[in-house]
Amino acid sequence: MGISWWSVACLWLALQRAPSASAASWAATPQTWPVPYRRFDHRPEPDPFCQPVYPFCPTGSRDGEIPQMKDRDIIEVYRLQTPVWEFKYGDLLGHFHIMHDAIGFRNTLTGNNYTMEWYELFQLGNCTFPHLRPGIEAPFWCNQGAACFFEGIDDSHWKENGSLVKVSEITGAIFNKLAQWVKEDNRTGIYYETWTVQSDPSPNATVWFKSYDCSAFVLRAYQTLFELGAVFKSPTQTNYTRIFLYSGEPSYLGNDTTIFGPHSNKTRGEEITYFYFPFRPPHSVKELILSLLEIVDKVVLEKTFYLYFNFEYWYLPMKQPYIKITYEEIPLPSKQNKSKVT
Ligand SMILES: *[C@@H]1O[C@H](CO)[C@@H](O)[C@H](O)[C@H]1NC(C)=O
Ligand SMILES: *[C@@H]1O[C@H](CO)[C@@H](O)[C@H](O)[C@H]1NC(C)=O
Ligand SMILES: *[C@@H]1O[C@H](CO)[C@@H](O)[C@H](O)[C@H]1NC(C)=O
Ligand SMILES: *[C@@H]1O[C@H](CO)[C@@H](O)[C@H](O)[C@H]1NC(C)=O
Ligand SMILES: *[C@@H]1O[C@H](CO)[C@@H](O)[C@H](O)[C@H]1NC(C)=O
Ligand SMILES: *[C@@H]1O[C@H](CO)[C@@H](O)[C@H](O)[C@H]1NC(C)=O
Ligand SMILES: *[C@@H]1O[C@H](CO)[C@@H](O)[C@H](O)[C@H]1NC(C)=O
Ligand SMILES: *[C@@H]1O[C@H](CO)[C@@H](O)[C@H](O)[C@H]1NC(C)=O
Ligand SMILES: *[C@@H]1O[C@H](CO)[C@@H](O)[C@H](O)[C@H]1NC(C)=O
Predict the structure, then answer these.
(1) Closest atom of ligand 5 to CA, residue 202
(2) Which Pfam families does the record match to this protein (predicted)?
(3) Which of 32, 197, 262, 316 could form a disulfide with 208 if both were Cys (CB 3.0 to 4.6 A apart)?
């Protein structure tokens, strides 16, 4: 069976949620999978067309400053997780675990606590689907994501139907090194990627592309802490939400210049634009329903998805079960469990 109407509808709702270069060259070297997420040397100013509904990181300091701890301070580390908005207040909680992840820190000497998270600058819908703008041929993406660090942990926000669980205790010296890592990670990792794409749902599947989202950030941060000497322990399972696409081996198509530029093959560009047409942020219920029909049609019937990754397009020959949202365990880093995160 293909994906049901219901799951597509839910996926759609998930994608509408509020707050919360590449390998593929002309070179003859064989493609490595998963395609590495491209790092940049700086973060560009977002285009003024991209306007957030909710301001990014409203209570963080302007330049993301992270306070220096004394080397010998003892800092508790918390795993923070909460359902994203629609799933918390709608009746969808329980159908899917669509969760947002973050990390909390508490300095046991000063009593001050802090939240660190990574999320979309312009909401998830904009990171997942582009805007088709009149007069601009290439689909237009408002897909930046970034780290936000602010003082305080809103306990009730995380506890209700989520988790606020102590997972480690580190020194101030380790915390300060993590702070440096976050700065660098935030400077070089600039865009959000919703989808994890792999060959099938089995544990042995070939992973074509990895998501780059709030939970990927938390997993990278845990791994960094682990490498700096942190020891992790959780009383509960550490599960994360991932949104999967299943496809055969992807093929590289090109970037905005090669696909949509003056010397490009117009057919390919038109196919991509046509594919993304129904995914535009909907203006009415009617438009939403038409969009959903188109999504089912394209992904399931045409077995096609055009993935945008590293600011380049890939063709995915989609196959069953097409799309899946999972909430599965990824253990905390430990000596037994060697790095699963890259
Ligand atoms: C997406 O981007 C558009 C254009 O900048 C903006 O109006 C909108 O608020 C953003 N958010 C969503 C969820 O579409
Ligand atoms: C990450 O980058 C964003 C966008 O430039 C910025 O607002 C934020 O403060 C930075 N976060 C950290 C922790 O440096
Ligand atoms: C938390 O989950 C319970 C059980 O599913 C539900 O009854 C309750 O409304 C949820 N709380 C919120 C704030 O959604
Ligand atoms: C964080 O600090 C706030 C304000 O003092 C307090 O209400 C909250 O319980 C603290 N949370 C944790 C996990 O330390
Ligand atoms: C995964 O690979 C192992 C070893 O190659 C094999 O024994 C196992 O049957 C495979 N599992 C699946 C679900 O394909
Ligand atoms: C697109 O790809 C071409 C060929 O690989 C490259 O020369 C060009 O700089 C790229 N353009 C952008 C905007 O990345
Ligand atoms: C242009 O792209 C289309 C669709 O990808 C393809 O069928 C066609 O052969 C291409 N034409 C040329 C001249 O490369
Ligand atoms: C967490 O993941 C494990 C295995 O990945 C699964 O067995 C378990 O049911 C998941 N927990 C929840 C609450 O879904
Ligand atoms: C290591 O990972 C496996 C599954 O991936 C899990 O069952 C096991 O409990 C983990 N061990 C530790 C010490 O976390």
Answers:
(1) 13
(2) CLN5
(3) 197
